[in-house]
From TrEMBL:
SUPFAM superfamilies: Periplasmic binding protein-like II (SSF53850). It comes from Halosimplex aquaticum. Residues 43-67 are annotated as: Disordered. InterPro entries: Bact_solute-bd_prot1 (IPR050490), SBP (IPR006059). This is Extracellular solute-binding protein. Residues 43-54 have a biased composition (Gly residues). It comes from the Archaea. Pfam families: SBP_bac_8 (PF13416).
Length: 464
């Protein structure tokens, strides 16, 4: 196997950097990922950062001093890392500019992702809910009974303020369960130096299965690096993002219109077997299910490609001398359509019997301001904002990450490429138990056929 001096030096730099900041420091750079990241990109949430000290309590981790205002709106988030910093700056701006008047301020609290929804649900059912809260779109149906309908609180049409796809995303059974903040889809990040080391053009990443397979085989044969991982964190939900994208690209269904799992179809079985083959006969990647294994390998310069969401861009930007790129995930074998997984952040108004109508109205207006007046949520945090005026402002095109990631995510949005994390009426679509069977297949702990049937059974039981 060939190992260029540049590739050796690159990996040496990666190891030096990671040793210097420590494993916790590197993982803490993540923003919206979960299992070592920050928020919940369609799942994630929990990593470091997010600004501000504070002792964790049952009602969140205070990370912003309550402003000197007559009405203080409490606002729960789960953002850490890069997007946590951006959200903190947005709320600081609100409290400085006072768009709803001098008497209204926001107190932001961050709760780690792995505790967030349990604590939020407890607060809502216990009569101690925050005035506003971040909620993934995948939970809007499940929590619908404890959310305030925005419809009587807003004096605008959703489609006038937000792109049409986002309108459908937050409208559940005729109710406006949330105001949309963003989409956070997933794609494939890659190490350009490994591509160059293998003799590949680092500026021409794969666009289809044949190119993806050829590049992977070349990297496997000409370097000592692992080729690909479906998630940095070796978590089930992360593995689902890549797998479901490929299933959809091959024409398969994941859930039917009744929200029942139907992925034990031809495409679902084929992509499950592909996971097995990648760490087996294809000899692309090690058979590991260790938490954060691929995250460490990728950041250390020993993994060529990894699937992840919008939030990962700020992890990449923080790494010194890391020569990375990004490409659309349309690389499934037997592709019949271009589809990519996505979820989205929204702002909900949890029901609280002790909150006045006036305060509920102010919370709705504050949520509208947060979701429409802050282009930095796209240009800096890396997500796809929902607001029309942000897309029309030119702010995204002037972002330093536009060419790297945003332009590609936007192109997929314009071409209607996204399908969404399931909005099931019960059960938790981000529960590790729903999707860990994919990691078991990847690590050769369970063969594909029994694994997929086990996954079907688990999810059917969860949503009964």
């Amino acid at each position: 196997m060939r190992d260029s001096s540049k590739g050796v030096e690159q990996r040496r730099n990666r190891r030096k950097f990671i040793k210097g900041v420590g494993a916790v420091g590197v993982l803490g750079l993540a923003g919206c990922s979960g299992n070592g990241g920050g928020d919940g990109g369609g799942g994630g949430g929990g990593g470091g950062g997010g600004g501000g000290a504070g002792t964790q309590t049952a009602t969140g981790t205070p990370s912003a001093t309550p402003p000197d205002a007559e009405t203080v709106l409490t606002y729960w988030t789960l953002f850490g890392g890069g997007d946590g910093v951006v959200m903190k700056s947005i709320i600081d701006k609100f409290n400085k500019e006072q768009p709803l008047g001098e008497s209204v301020g926001i107190r932001r609290q961050r709760v780690p992702w792995d505790q967030y929804y349990d604590k939020l649900y407890t607060s809502m059912t216990g009569g101690a809910a925050p005035d506003m809260a971040i909620m993934h779109g995948s939970y809007l149906r499940r929590y619908g009974d404890v959310l305030t309908n925005y419809k009587p609180l807003i004096d605008f049409k959703l489609e006038d303020e937000y792109l049409s796809t986002y309108v459908d995303f937050v409208t559940i059974d005729g109710n406006i369960n949330a105001l949309p903040l963003d989409f956070h889809p997933a794609g494939i990040y890659y190490n350009k130096d490994i591509f160059e080391e293998a003799g590949l053009d680092p500026e021409s990443p794969p666009k289809n299965w044949d190119e993806f397979k050829s590049a992977g085989d070349t990297i496997a044969s000409k370097t000592d690096n692992d080729v690909y991982a479906p998630t940095p964190y070796m978590d089930g939900v992360g593995a689902y993002r890549a797998w479901s994208s490929w299933v959809k690209q091959a024409g398969g269904q994941i859930f039917n219109e009744q929200h029942e799992p139907v992925f034990n179809n031809e495409a679902g079985r084929k992509m499950t077997k592909l996971y097995w083959r990648m760490t087996g006969e294809m000899n692309w990647t090690q058979q590991s299910s260790s938490e954060n294994w691929a995250n460490q390998r990728f950041q250390n310069g020993n993994l060529a490609m990894v699937s992840n969401g919008t939030w990962y861009v700020n992890v990449m930007r923080e790494l010194e001398d890391f020569n990375w790129g990004f490409f659309k995930p349309f690389v499934a074998p037997n592709r019949t359509q271009k589809k990519a997984w996505a979820d989205g952040h929204t702002i909900v108004l949890p029901r609280n019997p002790d909150r006045s109508d006036k305060k509920t109205q102010l919370a709705a207006e504050a949520a509208h301001w947060i979701t429409t007046q802050n282009p930095e949520w796209g240009s800096e945090a890396g997500h796809l904002p929902a607001a029309r005026q942000i897309h029309e402002s030119g702010a995204l095109e002037s972002s330093p990450i536009y060419d790297k990631t945003l332009s590609k995510f936007l192109e997929m949005a314009k071409n209607d490429a996204y399908f969404f994390h399931p909005q099931v009426p019960s059960g938790n679509p981000n529960n590790a138990n729903w999707w860990n069977w994919l990691i078991d297949v990847w690590a050769h702990n369970t063969e594909p056929e029994p694994a997929i049937e086990s996954g079907m059974k688990t999810i059917k039981n969860a949503i009964k």
